[in-house]
Amino acid sequence: MSLPPTLTDGVVTLRGHRPDDAPGVLEQCQDPLSMQWTSVPIPYSMADAETYVNEVTPLGWLADTEWAFAIEAEGRFAGTCSLRNEGSRRAEIAYGAHPWVRGTGHVERALRLLLDYGFGESDLTTVIWWARQGNWASRKTAWRLGFRLEGSLRQWLTARGEVRDAWVGTLLRDDPREPQSRWLECPVLERDGLRLRPMRVDDADRIVEACTEERTQHWLGSLPSPYGRDDALTYIESRTAQLAEGSGVTWAVTAPDDDVLLGTIGWFNWTPEVECEIGYWTHPDARGRGLMTRAMGLVTDHVLDDLGVRRVTAFAAVGNAASRRVIEANGFREFGVERLGIQVRDGRTDMALYDLLAEERPARD
């Protein structure tokens, strides 16, 4: 097919690129997120944008190699999406959003139109999605569309002379166009002079301070040593992965007035409607203030009331008196000791096992 069709759902329109799209393409490709996660040339010029809309996209249609559409919404250029023809009724999906349209839902609508076109008029059987590892916005969009994450490939995607780790997912013609797995949210929780919020990249320095401190290093024996900023960023990234995999939620513990990270707390090891585990650590300058005891109570109430589990567990090294006080202050009962059950810095030690049933929850003031 040499000319792109025009597709619309009444809110979003997909059409062929026009010369007057070039300024929008330029703005999109000069945006920091576009430069970070795509392979657009840096620097990107108006000449590059004009070449793209006037030559590259029409040639893709003429050669039947890439079916690219401009996304139009609210009367404005909103980005580009395409299917790259891989032959044998297979294609790769690609998309990029202009900064103004992010968070509006318009790109998802555009991609649904694109997939309907691919599986319909183009008679595709399989669409593959690739993204550089860490591009959570792209991964969540693919998840919403029904793509199944097939895994990670080390050193696979190229960008400006570098080879990066990648995620890959697939969508088949007859697959549901809806999420096929659970993606958890991290709600903001506030009570008792605390604010629990999602973790952010700018928490990294505080995490480094906590995780290089001697006491933290001793009781959290699996921490890297020495512990640096890259380790903190990896930890933050892993908390986002936890949400995407539906396996748990971790919060930064803060005070409402300054938002500085004072520790982290989260739930994991979840059996829906049955149980989950809570774990935590405290920044050194926040110890002795009852902060983590209050955070533990807040998260315990959250998982019992909102997650709907009947049993909550928590574990601590037998010798970690401060951690055990946090657990016991919230009504948890010790039900056993696992010998050599936990790793500390100088080896393994016994672990105290605690749990709390929903009907045993203590009254809160």
TrEMBL record:
It comes from the Bacteria. The keyword Transferase applies. Pfam families: Acetyltransf_3. Residues 12-174, 194-359 form the N-acetyltransferase domain. One of its GO terms (molecular function) is protein-N-terminal-alanine acetyltransferase activity. Keywords: Transferase. GO terms for cellular component: cytoplasm. PROSITE patterns: GNAT. This is Protein N-acetyltransferase, RimJ/RimL family. The lineage of its organism: Bacteria, Bacillati, Actinomycetota, Actinomycetes, Propionibacteriales.
